[in-house]
Amino acid sequence: MASAGLTVPDRTRVTSWLQDYGVYLAVVVLLLFNVVFTGNFLSAANFRTQLVQAAPVCIVALGMALVIGTEGIDLSVGSVMSVAAALVPLYLGAGPLTAILVAVGAGIVSGLFSGFLVARLGIQPIIATLALLVGGRGLALVIAHGRLVQLHNAEFLALGTGDVLGIPVMVLVAAVLAVLAGLLVRRTTFGRQLVAIGGNRAAGTLAGLPVKRVLVGVYVISGALAAVAGVLATARLGASDPNDLGLLMELSAITAVVVGGTPLTGGRVRVLGTVFGALLMQLVHATLIKHDLPDSTAQMVQAAIIVAAVYVARERNSR
Amino acid sequence: MTATVSARNAAFAGVLQRQGAAVVLVLGVVVAWFAFPRFGSADNLRDLALQSSFLAVIALGMTFVIISGGIDLSVGSVYALGGVLAAYGSRYGLVVAILLPLTVCSLIGLVNGLLIARTRMAPFIVTLASLLFARGLLLALTSEGATTYKVDSDSALLWLGQGTILGVGVPVFLALILFALGGVLLRRTRFGQSVFAIGGAEQSALLMGLAVARTKITLYTLSGALAGLAGILTAAYLRSGVTVIGVGTELDAISVVVIGGTLLTGGAGTIVGTLVGVLLRTLIQNVINQVGSLDSNYQTVVSGAFLLVVVVIQRLLARSRTRN
């Protein structure tokens, strides 16, 4: 990054194209590979499974993409998921809607908290959200007395296993949220301000943009989306599991965002890229598992993909 | 007159910012000493020191990395990998048990450093990838976590974890020596000066002709090696290579470094501060364990809250200083 000012990167058209469309190409290639080489891949049931499994990561990654667009990072998402999960059984007696509202409310409060630390006190995002990552899971365990709780409310469980018009509820929610995130970035003042602030904070301040309000806003959105993902994952699991739910989710979400072409240096948000980033990571995992390659190999391949994706994107990032 | 007062205030704020954790540690120890009769017992203190030593070794490397303006997320996985490799290697003798994990873990650090220094990729992402890679390697070595390698009871390796010198545990001894060496390296050598210079202003460090790339590569290699060493010590202490340790350890290490007064923005920090940060963390855990009625889950809540309080105070003090 340091020598960016000293050497002018000679970007070829190929790398430029790869930076823009690499993630889509990778998803298509991987799909084709599986259609040809993986038995039973081309079935509705399998596509369903893949999409449902990618949905929570995708939802969290959408919020993460907005935060990263402001040159921030949100490490608290996994813990926020676990807090949301811990709250669900406590309020499920009052109906699924109440439970969901309380859980998402907790996500919003977490986001307000992180946003306050980042925007008002000027604490680095990584540290501000690290505190919540460490403390949040403890809080979830305290709320749940450290126990996994089985859930029996059929209406609530339908969120995880049910369909609307033949599409799994989880996938539908993820798709709607992705469209909303896309509209937010492209069509609203908030979105334009977000990108402007991420590109150049000082210029944003000088131009009179409401920097603090926008910063708080993105952390609130990220917290709310993490809570939604926590609720959906809990419904799918059929149990509230504050111990394990959302563990390392921050890393998966950041990976999906970065692989999708959003630079960590801010100033740019690629919503569709993020969705495809989440799909790609899921497909890689599924491909390796279906070919009887163990989890360990899957993780190492995932590591290689992250490095390759960021390597391709690095010249844009270092500007 | 006002100038002297504000100068004195600024100096006071500076001391608080740098030594705040130490003040809290001393207060905490005094309170715990009187509040819990078992706290001051030689056994408990020995335990406290021993438990601090593993994280301390990892946090030492992290301190160097953070002062340079970087971050190393891979240390938790590398730590676990080091432990498994040490336990696996112990059947081939002490030399293999030590050199195998140190070599592999240093190599992972070296690759981190090469990627960060030569391709200018963000440390956060590079070390995130090696976090996944190291854990994958660990799973592959242990048949997906199903195999646990034990350290034979007659292995010389065990002394490294369980032995004592003058009543002090060997890991504690090693950690203290490493911190002393680390302090000298950071304060008294050209390498240490480069680390501060890079963290302060990388562009200037480059223009001054410092070996920025080489320093960074060395830093990350050092961090990997220290995490591996902590793994060796833990395996020797637990008598086996435990596959499930190290998850989230990178965050613990970052926390204690920050609590110790090292700025995440780079360019400033101390080795002693990190040691204080580690001890504070162990103290909090110990106190929560002593208060038997308290849910052990509060430990993480308190740790998180504590990190937050320290960071907020640091930030407010830094702000008042710049105003002065």
Outline the structure in words.
The complex is a heterodimer of chains A (319) and B (324). Chain A is built from 13 helices and four strands. Chain A has 319 residues and is mostly helical. Chain A has a domain of 206 residues. Chain A has a two-stranded antiparallel ribbon with strand order 1-4. In chain A, helix 2 packs antiparallel against helix 10, helix 2 packs across helix 11 and helix 4 packs antiparallel against helix 5. Chain A is globular. The N terminus of chain A is likely disordered. Chain B has 324 residues and is mostly helical. Chain B has one domain: ABC transporter involved in vitamin B12 uptake, BtuC (Orthogonal Bundle), CATH 1.10.3470. At the A-B interface, helix 5, helix 11 and helix 13 of A face helix 5, helix 9, helix 11 and helix 13 of B.
Order of helices and strands of chain B: HHHHHHEEHHHHHHH
Helical proportion of chain A, percent range: over 70%
CATH class of chain B: Mainly Alpha
Q: pLDDT under 50 segments of chain A (min length 5)?
A: 1-8
Shape of chain B: globular
Organism (chain B): Amycolatopsis acidiphila
Protein name (chain B): ABC transporter permease
Subcellular location (chain B): Cell membrane
Transmembrane segments (chain B): 20-36, 48-71, 91-117, 124-143, 163-186, 219-239, 251-280, 300-318
